[in-house]
Amino acid sequence: VAMRATPFGYVHVFVAGVAAARVFMLVATSDAETGERVGPSTRRVVLAEQRAPLLLRYGCCAGYLAYGVMVLFATEWIETHYYFFHNGGMMPVMLLVLVGAAIGTDPITVWVFRSRPMLTLGRISYLQYL
Question: Cβ–Cβ contacts within 10 Å for residue 69, how many?
Fold first, then answer.
């Protein structure tokens, strides 16, 4: 029960988030002054979409496609491995979606997430968060 109902059971989710942020900084940003990779002397960073690997640039499409395939073709397997998927088994798919959206070149990001209704929902939800 302590592993399922306390923060101790979700340390791996925190570590995965930290690792995803680090991967994003290493592969999708560059030094604003030199254009080189981010390093200890970097003061400002800029997004460098073209430096990111193709899988990450289209991470939303790849992640949602993987999720759809699992829902359509692996439902029985997901039901028998509930704790695996509930406690982090979907992290690779969700990290693909997250990093793909952060890079911003994915078609889902460009056409859906940047649409006026989604931007309005984002502003509303941020106000509710505050």
Answer: 11
